[in-house]
Amino acid sequence: MHLMQHISAFLTLVLTVTVSLTNALHCPRDRSRNVRNLLKEVVYPLFTQVKTSVPDTCLFSPERDKYLLQEENKVSEGISKWYCNYCGKGFYSEDYLDRHFDNRHSEYVREDKSSVCFADYCDIMRCDILAGRRKKEFWDVSLCLESDMKDLMDDCERLMSACVPDGLSKNATEFLITHMTENVCSFLTCKKYWQSAVEEENDGVIFYSILTVFLIIVFTIYYCVAYHYFYTDTFTDSYYETYYDRHHPVSTPQVGRQQEGIPGTRRRIMEDIAEHEVS
């Protein structure tokens, strides 16, 4: 009896591992995630704008995602805090949580006929480019054929058109087709293939812009101070007057000094300073 239980447990384990390996080989989670993330950022919001949902007839519908049930049971509390909502175990990254799903909860991977492996469309969604696994190189650009790209673009436009729900107004239909094509399919050319479909905030540009404004303000203040110091009497007159008043508390009546004017006053101050230094 115990032997049969051990054999049954062993076969169950082997079956689970086999299913996990099969899913990992035929539908890589990381590539599926790349497609899913792109759809969430540049496709699904378009349907929200026209106040409709992605139809089930669309291959990119979130309801047809092969890993939908597991994705809905991921709990994130930061970049390094991920939890399995099935059993409550915590992990340091989403990749480790995915491995946990493969090993412990593979029964929640959809295998029905309507389920779709998003990774199968990585050629259209440019998974390797968006994930940074592939960089732009000279020979890739030089050997790129527009005819091959045209075939990909045609497939992309056909798939996107199939995602437009029935019953929409003409304006809403045109809006969805135009923007889905622009956000996804338009990058399937030799010129734009290596560009990002998601607008990224350029922190470097912002930093250097702030630094430039700061330096302009600093240099403006510096040159104003330097100009007044070397080319005006703003600093020298006040120094001489202060020096003179400090060493000559009792001086010639102010009426006489006012009559001498500014040049005479400065000359008298300079003469008094010279006499003081000699004495």
Give the topology:
Blueprint: H1 2-26, H2 29-42, H3 44-49, H4 68-71, E1 74-76, E2 82-84, E3 90-91, H5 94-104, H6 122-125, H7 127-130, H8 138-142, H9 146-161, H10 170-183, H11 203-231, H12 236-247, H13 254-278
Antiparallel strand pairs: 1-2, 2-3
Summarize the structure.
61% of the residues lie in helices and 3% in strands. It contains 13 helices and 3 strands, in the order H-H-H-H-E-E-E-H-H-H-H-H-H-H-H-H.
Describe this structure in words.
The protein is mostly helical. It has helices at 2-26, 29-42, 44-49, 68-71, 94-104, 122-125, 127-130, 138-142, 146-161, 170-183, 203-231, 236-247, 254-278, and strands at 74-76, 82-84, 90-91. It has a 3-stranded antiparallel β-sheet with strand order 1-2-3, covered by helices on one side. Strand 1 (74-76) and strand 2 (82-84) form a beta hairpin. The model is unreliable at 5-24 and 255-260 (pLDDT under 50).
Summary keywords:
279 residues; mainly alpha; 3-stranded antiparallel beta sheet; 13 helices
> Rg to the nearest angstrom?
38 Å
Strand order of the largest sheet: 1-2-3
Spans with pLDDT under 50 lasting ≥5 residues?
5-24, 255-260
Share of residues in helices? 55-70%
Strand content: under 5%
Quick one: overall form?
elongated
SSE succession: HHHHEEEHHHHHHHHH
